[in-house]
Amino acid sequence: MSVSIKMHEVIVVGGGFAGIGAVIKLREAGINDVLLLEKADELGGVWRENTYPGCACDVPSALYSFSFAPNPLWSRVFAGQAEIKAYLQGVAESYRVLPMVKFQHEVITAAWSDTDACWHLQTNHGEFHARFVIMAGGPMHEPVLPNVPGLSEFSGDVFHSSRWRHDIDLNNKRVAVIGTGASAIQFVPAIQPTVGKLTVFQRTPHWVLPKMDQALPGIVQRLFKRLPLAQLAVRGAVFGIFETLNGGMQNIAAMKQFQRLAKFNLHRAVKDPMLRSRLTPQYTIGCKRVLQSNDWYPALVQPNVDVVSSALAKVTGNTLVAADGSTYEADVIILGTGFEIAEPPIAKRVFNRYGQRMSDVWQGSPEGYMGTMVADCPNAFLMFGPNIAVSSSAFLIIEAQLAYVVDAIEKARELNLRSIETDPLRVADFNARVQSALEDSVWNRGGCTSYFIDRNGRNSTVWPWSTLEMKRQLSQFNLDEYRVTRA
């Protein structure tokens, strides 16, 4: 006897900011048959996963929040992890998102059925069907683990920064950190004063700007609460700064001028010419993610810290061997090796109308339309899809995409459409224009290897134009650009 499976109008996968925003905006549009599937037992996304010491945002809080849900009570210019997670959960509660959520429901596969004109989502707790799906899993939750011989046999403890082992006491331990990216520059200064010896393995140095961070006094919080326009003005000013930086990424000469600030930050903090040389990148700022910190360099000059300008080559017992042949002893290894960015992890679980895995179709070079829809996946929308990243707040991307997605679903309802899918000719034209616009940018020509560039050497990550242009292009869903079938 077959069991009937309820058909939902929209299923949202993932309970981070994008997923929560999707539920809120769908319901505002009168679309109430919405279900959010979340693999964990609470909402939070990347801010639930990352709890390492010193974890904080590198976008000012005024801009790192929903435009429709400002928070006048941020305690700092750059909020920390716990505060951001509390904001996220507070927004979900005040906008009544929680009744729409099924916790501990991990999507194993999502497959489009032409017969049923819907998506079949298989979870660890059974199957769900939906006319539309919004994949809001996000790019920063699947850790990249290095393939280092002997690492799995290391005699001490090993963990990734996004799976921080708070039960391990690092006091007076010999700690090795692999990687010097956005996470490492936050947790290294936090643990440096307490560990016995800290060995930092750095394949490539990063440009690090000063972080204009400080506590926000009560008078500012009261001002923001009583005069929301004041906080809106600050948000606008921060947006302008990031928009200027984002625009500069198109001009390598302009970025080299901006690089002088990062060089000043390095020279001010690191007086040893040998160490300073090891910490000076040989590429143009912006080629890799631009980092900000006031305590990264001061931590590295401490007597209990060694900076190894070499990758970790192998591990034997508790001995770490660098690619240059030097050896180091460690009790604990912390992997600050980042996340899978160029290829969205959800792509391994999504199957198109022909039963092909999205990741297999892409073959390492993700491609979509407007960063939001993917070929042969009708009625499916991908948050943070291919070529949608900007050097600014993730909320600008989220809100631009959600305006586009909600408009698509509203038009499908209004016109009684069975399906919406991409037009191959328009997809090809759009991606040709994207790649052409990226050709001379600092991301492509800055002289580095970064997570913006996929394993085939193609920039599958970055939106090459301004965030204002993104907002304009995604302001409404133009059905003429898509293939549609009527019910």
Descriptive overview:
The chain is an alpha/beta fold and 487 residues long. The protein has two domains: 7-142 and 340-486, 3-Layer(bba) Sandwich (FAD/NAD(P)-binding domain), CATH 3.50.50.60; 151-207 and 250-335, 3-Layer(bba) Sandwich (FAD/NAD(P)-binding domain). The chain is built from 14 helices and 20 strands. The protein has helices at residues 17-28, 46-49, 81-94, 184-191, 218-226, 228-248, 252-269, 273-278, 296-300, 358-362, 394-414, 424-438, 442-445, 467-473, and strands at residues 7-13, 34-37, 101-102, 107-113, 118-123, 126-135, 157-160, 174-178, 197-201, 208-209, 291-292, 305-308, 312-316, 319-322, 327-329, 332-335, 350-351, 380-382, 417-422, 482-486. The strands form five sheets. Strands 1, 2, 3, 4, 5, 6, 17 and 18 form an eight-stranded mixed beta sheet that branches. It has a five-stranded parallel beta sheet with strand order 7-16-8-9-12, with no helix packed on it. α1 (17-28) packs parallel to α11 (394-414). It is globular and about 70 Å long. The two termini are 29 Å apart. The model has no long low-confidence stretch (mean pLDDT 96).
